[in-house]
Amino acid sequence: MTPRHERGFTLVELLVVVAIVGIVTAIAAPQLVRARAAGNEASAIASLRAIHSGQATYASSCARGGYAQSLDDLGRFPSGGNIGFVSPDIAANGVIKSGFILNVGPGLAAASVISSSNTCNGAVDDPITTYFAEAHPQTIGSTGNRSFGMDQRGGIFQDTTATTFTNAFPASATAVTPVQ
Q1: 16, 36, 75, 82: least CB-packed within 10 angstroms?
Q2: Three-state SS string across the chain, please?
């Protein structure tokens, strides 16, 4: 008899490869979820900084020192302009960006500064003396593990329970330490 020289893989070899791929996937999947959540949280912080910048520009150039009560008002174009005070991807309350829901509202003891009809962009609501902005994960544990909030002072706070911030920051909220 002459030996046959067949080419290919045996069933056992294929099963070993499939088992190895399964083990590597089981090890890597949680790391991927954590990395994605960290990226989403960094995007939420950047969005809050953009909102703060938009509010500062709105207050100084459009609303005589007052702040917008919503992202909708920050997204409105000034007369003669073609862009709002924030980018179009965050120009409405309740918008979802990178797995986080963004909102802006009146701050504590907010008072009207001028009538909305006197703003440069025809805001819906009157500009006010204080505001707060918040970003919370759409799905806790998947899109993010912390919620973030800020007010007109510009400091960003985090809550590790991922609860939605209101205009009064809870005692459990801590300042986010920026990475240098």
Answers
A1: 82
A2: CCCCCCCCCCHHHHHHHHHHHHHHHHHHHHHHHHHHHHHHHHHHHHHHHHHHHHHHHHHHHCCCCCECCCHHHHHCCCCCCCCCCCCHHHCCCCEEECCEEEEEEECCCCCECCCHHHCCCCCCCCCECCEEEEEEECCECCCECCEEEEECCCCEEEECCCCCCCCCCCCCCEECCCCC
